[in-house]
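pinging the channel bc i need a second pair of eyes. not urgent but kinda urgent?? the chain im working w is below, pasted from the shared doc
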Amino acid sequence: MTAKVSYESVEVGTELPARSFPVTRATLVQYAGASGDFNPIHWNEKFAREVGLPDVIAHGMFTMAEAIRVVTDWAGDPGAVVEYGVRFTRPVVVPNDDKGALVEVSGKVAALLGDNRVRVDLTAVSDGQKVLGMSRAVVRLA
């Protein structure tokens, strides 16, 4: 499988379709089971507060994985991502209610790198706060 977006069809500033990802306590339990990360800051309010957090927080790697979905959905092939990195700037706080949290992700082509590769810069925000910094992916397009 290869990317469905052609290198010739993009330019610096091309915006990717933004997405919003809901995160509930149930989502965190599912991710903990899949990842094996059962750190109590991701499910135990009392423990999270005892270590100085405002409440239970989402796994950083979960947040990172949700953000890259904007790129993989746009490119049409997860294998088109050849590099990806972020800095975790703020945790995604997940209240124990029916709403949980929302992670809103947008992206745009920041550089044309040649060899059909582009750099996409992502912005991930939750509760009005940027939760990922330096979130960048290199993607090989068709």
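so The longest helix spans residues 60-75. and The two ends are 10 Å apart (CA to CA). — does that match what u expected or am i reading it wrong
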